[in-house]
Amino acid sequence: MDLDVLFLGTAGSSPSPRRGLPATLVRRGGDRLLFDCGEGTQRQLMRSVVGLVELEELFITHFHADHVLGLPGMLKTFALRQREREMVVYGPRGLRRVYELLEPVIGRLTFRVRLVELEGNQELERDGYRIAAFEVDHGGPGLGYALVEDPRPGQFDPERARELGVRPGPDFGRLQSGEEVDGVRPDQVMGETRRGRKVVLTGDSAPCDMTRLVAWEADLLVHEATFLEEDAERAVETRHSTAAQAAELAAAAGVQILALTHISPRYSIAEVRREARTAFERVVVPRDFDRIEIPLPERGKPVHVPAPDRPARPEVVAP
Amino acid sequence: MDLDVLFLGTAGSSPSPRRGLPATLVRRGGDRLLFDCGEGTQRQLMRSVVGLVELEELFITHFHADHVLGLPGMLKTFALRQREREMVVYGPRGLRRVYELLEPVIGRLTFRVRLVELEGNQELERDGYRIAAFEVDHGGPGLGYALVEDPRPGQFDPERARELGVRPGPDFGRLQSGEEVDGVRPDQVMGETRRGRKVVLTGDSAPCDMTRLVAWEADLLVHEATFLEEDAERAVETRHSTAAQAAELAAAAGVQILALTHISPRYSIAEVRREARTAFERVVVPRDFDRIEIPLPERGKPVHVPAPDRPARPEVVAP
After folding, report:
1. What predicted TM-score, i.e. pTM, was given to this entire model?
2. What does pLDDT average to over chain A?
3. With an 8 Å Cβ cutoff, are A319 and B266 in contact?
4. What digits encode the pLDDT tens for the residues B127-138?
5. Nearest residue, CB atoms, A69 vs list B18, B73, B267
6. Are residues B315 and A39, on separate chains, in Cβ contact within 8 Å?
7. Is ipTM over 0.95?
8. Percentage of residues of chain B with pLDDT beyond 70
9. Residue B209: burial class (beta carbons within 10 Å; 0-12, 13-18, 19+)
10. Pair (B129, B36) in one structural domain
11. What is the DSSP letter of A177?
12. Contact with chain B for residue A110, Cβ under 8 A
C-alpha cells in the first residue's frame, strides 16, 4: 500500500515567493487527506502532481487565518465544477462557528459540507488505518493528527505449512486469515505480526508532551519550526516551536524522519536544518511540492523526494 | 512619467496552474494602484518584480469571490509587518457590507482600512491624473475604472522665444507655466496641448456602451474575455464577454492596444487571440507577470513585455 506526504504549503503566517501557506496532503492507497488549507491551496494542488482532485476529507489543525483562508475559494471551485459528493471538514471545537463566519463569503454550493468537531484522543476508523486527533499547545483549540496503520499479520511460511501436512490452495488462505486447519494452528505457520506505519502532523504548536507520546517511533513526524533558537522567546510568546525544540522532540520520540514546516522567510533553509541537526540527524526541510514516501518498514526507510523542477502542468485542459 | 500595467492574476473564476485569480497593478510614477484582489494576490505580488509593497489604494470592481478573497490574507500580512499607514479600499455600493462579512476573518489589524463606495461616473483627483469609476454590466453592482491623465502643455520652443526677444532663464519658465512675458504670450512659443494617457479596466462585464465610451481612444483597454463565441450563450447568461465581443468593442473605441484577461482554462491562449484578431489586430493575452508599458504618446506605442522566466525572487529576506 502506497503512503506518502506531499507538501503543498510550507510557509508560516505569510507566504513567500517560494512557499505557500500551510497545506499538506497525505496519500494512502486511493485516499487523499488534506491537512489545513491556507490561502492559495487550490492552486498549489493544481500545480502539483496530484491536481485539484475532488477531496473528500479536510482536517483543520486550528483556525488561524493562514491555515483556513484557502477553504472558501476551493469550495467555490468545486461548486463551479458541479461537484455533488459531500465533503467532510474536521477540526477542533469551534469549527462550526468559524465555518458560519466564512459561509457568507462561500455562498451557495452544489454539494454538502459536513462539519465534524473533534476532541483530543478521538479516533476515526478507516480501512486499514485510523486517524487520531491529539491536543497540541498553541494557546487555543488546536489539534495535531496521526495516521496510524493497523498492524499487519506476519508473513505466511508455505514450506512450513506443507511440512505440517496442509495442502496448497484454499487451506493456505484459511490459515492466513486466522483459521485452524486440520489441527494446524495459524501461529505455527505465520511469522510475527508486523507493525503498521505512522505519520504524525503537529500543525502549529509549542513542543509538547502529547506530540512526543503520539509520535513515539513514528515513521514520519511533520513538526512546525516557526523560529530558531535566537528567537526562542518569541516562540514561547506565540506558542510556536524552534527548529531545535522540534528536533529534540523527534529524538526523544525516536522517529524515523522529521520534516520541518511553517518556515519563516526570516531564516534560510540551511540555518533551519543546521540548528535541527544539532539535536537530530534525520531531518529534512521540504520545499513546496516535495514529497516524503514511506515504504512498508520491511521494504526500506522513508525517502525525501524533491519536487520536479517545473510543477506547472500544461495549461490547456480538455473541456 | 512611467506608466505600466502588471498582470498579477489573469484567470477567471478559478485559478489554473499558470494563472492566478484577478489582480492587476497599475504603476504610475511612484503610485501603485491595485485593481481587484483574488485569492493568492499577496503571493503573486511577492513573486513579481514589485514585491508586496505597502499598497495604499485598492480598487474592487465587484464582489464575486474570485475578485476579493485575497484581501483578508493580504491585510493580515500587512498587520504582521506592523503596518501603520491607512489603506483605502474603493468599490461599488455594497463594499461596506462585504467588508463587514470579511471582518471576523480578518481579525485585528495594526492600521486603519478606509472604505469608499463609489458611484458610476465618480472621479478621484490625483496629482496629474484622475481615476474615473464607470458602471459596467455584470448583473449586479460592478465598476470599471479608467486612469485618465491630465492634458499636458505643448512643447516649448526656445528658438521662437529668443526670436521674440525673451532672454533664456526665469522668463522661459514663466512662459511655460502660462504667464505673459514682455508682451510675448505663451501661445506664441508653446506647441499644442498634448493629450495625457488613458488606461481602462473593465473588471467582469458583458460588452457595454459605457465601456466603449470610456475607452474611446484609450492607450490600453484591459477587457475581460471569459468565453469564446462558441459559448456565447453562456456569456450572455453570466454577463461576461467573448473574446470577439471585447475585440469589436476595442475596434469601435479605437484603442491603441487591447489586453484580454479573466481567461478560462477551457481555451488555449492561441484560440482566444485568434478569435479576437478577427475583429481587432492589436490584441494581447497577457500571462501572469507580463507587463504593458505605456510610453508618452510622442515617444512610442504601448509595448507588451513578457514576464521574466523565473519570477521567484530569492527566498532569504534580511530580517
Report:
1. 0.89
2. 94
3. yes
4. 999 999 999 999
5. B73
6. no
7. no
8. 97
9. exposed
10. yes
11. T
12. no
